[in-house]
Amino acid sequence: MFNIRRMEPKDLIDVQRCNQYNLPENYPMVFWTYSVITWPEASFLAEDLGGKIVGYVLASVEQAEENDHLWVGHINSLAVLRPYRRLGLAKRLMTLSKESMMDTYPLQYIQLHVRISNRAALSLYRDALGYTVHSVDYRYYADGEDAFSMRLWINGNPDILRHRRQRWKIFGSFHRFMVRKHEQLAYCFRGTGSAS
User: Fold this and answer.
1) CA 168: distance to chain centroid?
2) Cβ atoms < 10 Å from Cβ of 164
3) Confidence class of residue 38 from pLDDT cuts 50, 70 and 90?
4) Are 61 and 75 in contact (CB under 8 A)?
5) Is 35 in contact with 58 (CB distance < 8 Å)?
6) pTM of the model
7) Half-sphere exposure of 173 (CA within 13 A, CB side)
8) pLDDT tier at 75 (50, 70, 90 boundaries)?
9) How many angstroms separate the CA atoms of 152 and 127, rounded?
């Protein structure tokens, strides 16, 4: 049994310790503090019955680089201690963070980076949570490994929406053409019927 709750500033030393056990990427305490204070609704942690922090998700919200009218959620870090993996904690933490950010901000998408060699994380993000690979960031990590930049579209991928709009625009033009032809044919038949 686990208690999952929002991360608070008082939790940061223990959360950072959990991070150091699990991941080679470690943020300075000022980053953790800034994130939790600035976006208190975005980050969550899981603790066991004894109050030990066994997993967390650290998230933030920012304006999209390509459009400053859009808001983007960013998963900065996710970790679950090894003995507590395969219990659904990571998925639950990610889902709570997503739902909380969506309730607070008009998000276009949520993004994250993952090592291209991290098959377990890729499976979680892609297969269980619905993220898609947006791009590859070469030598993203300090040790030189590449990262997949992944996105979970909340209000629709603009590229896909644009394509759909173009398809509907073509369909709409064809539909209007057919309606006009039908009206012309109906007029012709009406005219023929009245003459006979």
Assistant:
1) 27
2) 12
3) very high
4) no
5) yes
6) 0.75
7) 5
8) very high
9) 12
